[in-house]
Amino acid sequence: MSKCSNTHKAVVMKAISPSLLSADFGNMKRDVELLNASGCDFLHLDIMDGVFVPNISFGIPVVKSIASYAKKPLDAHLMIVEPERWIDNFADLGVRILSIHYEACTHLNRAMQQMHSRGLMAGVAFNPSTPVSALEEIVCNCDVVLLMSVNPGFGAQAFIPGSLDKISRLKKLIAEKGSKALIEVDGGVSMANHSELFNAGADILVAGNAIFTSDDPIAAIEALKS
Ligand code: DX5
Ligand code: ZN
């Protein structure tokens, strides 16, 4: 298997990216300020268009507002068709990680170049039904691979069990290629599975329901990191 030419591995960490999809939209500023004061590493923004996924969440004006009071780096996950059309908008808003779906983008290599030219950490997200092998030709260009462990579109869904093995296979592909990509796992992350997800090779865990239904979200974030 051919190797990546840019082989530096970003710092590996047990990072948590709380999903604001589970926040109280009527109190978004309050919830973001709570996360600002927590040990979380990113803020995960789930952008849905009602076409790529059967749900609509929030868009550019809401992200702009969140960016004005967020103190954590923004981690945007675009579940939209033709995501490449919006790369500049998200770069202008100062997001750190931008992930677009393998299934939604025809010219993924070009989109990764576009993200890098704007200084973004470039991420490719892929659905539960998409095989790890589909990423062979793009993983060298990724800073992040976002592995969906539920079908995208909704929070609070059950973790798809086969995703654990998929993380291990993705980790193997990244190692074989010598890629610097971090593995981010999204969907159904809980107190019951976070340790095995990190052990299988996840670097960043997204969690919505597990954090925002907790009586103490800050303690929940600490527990997920441990
Ligand atoms: C699903 C989203 C996820 C979701 C995670 O389409 O991409 O980020 O909000 O939520 P939980 O942790 O509740 O599964
Ligand atoms: Zn997400």
Characteristic key phrases:
226 residues; alpha/beta; TIM Barrel; 8-stranded parallel beta sheet; 8 helices; binds D-xylitol-5-phosphate; binds zinc ion
Largest β-sheet summary: 8 strands, parallel
The helix fraction, in percent, is 25-40%
CATH superfamily: Aldolase class I
Structural category: alpha/beta
Tell me the CATH topology. Answer: TIM Barrel
* Bound ligands: D-xylitol-5-phosphate, zinc ion
Q: What strand line-up does the widest sheet have?
A: 1-8-7-6-5-4-3-2
List segments where confidence is low: pLDDT < 50 over at least 5 consecutive residues: none
Highest-level CATH class: Alpha Beta
Number of helices: 8
Overall body shape: globular
